[in-house]
């Protein structure tokens, strides 16, 4: 098993086992075709109430898939038998808001303290897979770059220490496919749902579409409309802004691969 | 304003004002046509994490509409200007799992302690209104009784002190309208969503459909199928079973009337 083509056809449990053995340490893009991947946020229990409330109040940018008990390491609903401390290829650890290290295994932190609460958050990979199946183009995949993301002037609802404006990702959609793209993603509220804005970036405070605040610019072709979806960077920013004393996240692109198929997230 | 017909056409803010003045102390059924009503659970902060997690893990029986900060009394998203301590016509207070009183105003409890967290939970009134609009019959309304509800053998996911099996409500649906009823309610996940079971009560552990565990029996006519939806009694039972030191709920049928229309809960 030496290339991504093979990983695409493997089961989530097989790939997680290889990640656990550190035989896979690269980004998970394209692995386990059809299965939902998720963003990871791990916070001490003392901050978990605020964060759970923040996600409850902002389900579009922060679609919670599963939250496990303090100290537990298994996403029992989305991936029975999984170990959140070893089954992602790369983690980032932050202390007081500063990145203090990247790890391929964060077991030692769960051994040092028993108050860590793990949050699995839905990811746009899932709806992009649904768009592609309907032949709606996903430009940043075509161009092999990161999706362009923008800060907006749309405030999230605050919860305790967590606050901030929504971040959106943008995909240019051909005129005749905009309704299709809306209908497909609206049916998947557990992975960000319908677009926040269609065609008028200035209406949500985006001044220069050619210069995204995160990720890479992509080509908008003649006859295409920029469409903006709530983005998972929103909760990540809210967490970083609060400078939590301790926090673990996935490293960008190094996601948790669940046993749940993307199509199941419609129900 | 002396009868329910008038209340049906009034705005939620108008009705809440009358409730606040204790000019309305009766059940809210039929009031403010088209607007979502919700169940209320108020718990001390010490239990709120477990309960929020329980709802997050069991969104079908426990569809959270809004959760407000400890000590706050306003459902700012669902009803700006509302006061959760005065705007329901009747409350029940439980101490250590025992009903210790019914009240038309619970302000004094918010004055005595600052740690009360209020949860607004979606209610089947909302999807029943959508069913009726599509000419799908709602039997218990026709017969003027409470909806029949049953204990099942379907376990909820536990969270801390909260656990138990799902409770379902039953509506008999004519054969030719079952798909319509499923499609309509599946599109409203914030108010219980699609049925849990269609036509085979024994498959979820219901032995005697003529004798519901809660509410009243209703007539199942020739050519009708019993259809079972996740029910809001589920979280209520989980709370009572845990015997919380302190808890406030709405009195049965005396709900919180929000400013959000039922149809908006589809999005």
Query: Which oligomerization state do the chains in this entry correspond to?
Result: homodimer
Which percent range describes the beta-strand content of chain A?
25-35%
Helix content of chain A: 10-25%
Count of DSSP strands of chain A: 11
SSE pattern of chain A, N- to C-terminal? HHEHEEEHEHHEEHEEHEE
Biggest sheet descriptor of chain A: 7 strands, antiparallel
Radius of gyration of chain A, taken over Cα atoms and rounded to an integer in Å: 18 Å
Would you tell me the structural class of the helices and strands of chain A?
alpha+beta
* General shape of chain A: globular
Task: Specify the number of helices of chain A.
Answer: 8
First-residue to last-residue Cα separation of chain A: 34 Å
Uncertain segments of chain A: none
- The overall pLDDT average of chain A reads 94
Q: Largest interface, with Cβ-Cβ < 8 Å?
A: A-B, 18 and 18 residues
What is the fold's blueprint, element by element?
The structure is a homodimer of 267-residue chains.
Chain A: H1 4-9, H2 12-20, E1 35-44, H3 45-57, E2 64-67, E3 91-95, E4 98-103, H4 107-112, E5 116-122, H5 125-133, H6 139-142, E6 149-155, E7 165-174, H7 178-186, E8 197-198, E9 224-230, H8 233-241, E10 247-250, E11 256-261
Antiparallel strand pairs in A: 1-5, 1-10, 1-11, 2-5, 3-4, 3-10, 6-7, 7-9, 8-9
